[in-house]
Amino acid sequence: MCRYFAVALAPRNITVNAVCPGITDDSIVNHLPPELCASMLAWLRSGWGPTRRAGTPADVGGAVAALCSADAQWITGQTIAADGGASLMNPVLPLDLQRP
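Below the sequence we write its predicted structure tokens.
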């Protein structure tokens, strides 16, 4: 839908983008069973997230603010993963091979 609307609205100088946050504090994650929440955070700290932490609302807001700025007027139809790099990791390879 994002790409479709981006094409349809481009003649009106309207950009359309999507932000897909990763595991974020103060989100639905905090309403999951405690053991599941702890497991997700441990997964990030183990190296699956290069930043080794959950995102914050401010992290996600920063991505949104950047896309809303005049500097982003040439960006449209994109899906931005605001996940601290977690989506860069390959679930097939052992973490030892992926870490610097």
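The chain has a mean pLDDT of 89.
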